[in-house]
Amino acid sequence: MRVIVALDKDAPTWDSYVALHDRCGNYHRWAWKSVIEQAFGWRTFYLMTEENGRISGILPLVWLKSKLFGNLLCSLPFLSDAGLVADTQEACEALLAETMRIAHDVKAKYVELRHRAYSPVCWPAKTNKVTLECDVSPDAEENMARLSTKMRTNARRSLKLGLDAQFGTQEFLVDFYGVFCLKMRELGTPVYGRKFFESILEHFPGESFICRVQHQGRTVAAGFLTGWRDTMEANWSAASPNAMSLRPNMFLFWQMLCFAGQKGYRIFDFGRSSIDSGTYQFKQQWNTRVVPLYWNYWDASGRGAMELNPENPRYRAAIWAWQRLPVAVTKWIGPPLARCLP
Known about the structure:
Aminopeptidase, 2 domains, 14-stranded mixed beta sheet
């Protein structure tokens, strides 16, 4: 067995392994490497184990280094899950050993491997985040019938408020990004640069979409979706804080859920949430099932898991200040900060 750092010439081999392996997900695909490199400029290490000319395991890694948030390796940052996949324990151990060798070489103080539903790694894990999903049908009435009586009432009520949903790609990016920046400012979180979303649309044509919700010609909500295999995920969504009386989130997710079924997907993934958060409770109402996320970590300092979230007291003052900045300013200074947040 040998461990190699895959190069562009190895992309077809990598993607063939991902396509055939049931524990590989959307974000294991090679094109996400290009998205992260182009949008954020971080160096990547896409590790493969090879035995007798056959791939037996993979682990994509991204190296992030900043003065604010430290020096770390992550698989994969900005996304929910793209951790280690291996056919044998030997391959798993070899990939972990190579990860630690790289961490030593680049002087990384922290390593995080993000897994969905199952983790092959015995490192400590953060388990406070999950994703929620439900089955979908091409038939909107069948989707409606799966909801509780209360949710059917709420969904139907949202359909009577004069909202209009459209699905597209690049042509709706300005609308999505505008609402997304508003929402991120409200949360006190630096916003990703628009180039990130442009790169996803470029590398995944026919598998990435934007839903734009308008009211009287004004965009009040939007969602960014990606699909692979039998699942479509609502990766990022936002509604204008000034339009909450129109129930835009209810309308948006109902439209995206039905769109997934109409496009031939069988599962709609509502995206990542922190357990017991407001978004988690909102998504639970849609007759969803919880899929655990295991974010395994190694920390050179021994202090435990890195907590770059609003609950961390260390960032409370910064979040308060960010929420009071003009949106135009957050669009300017947000992307350089967001690229450092895994």
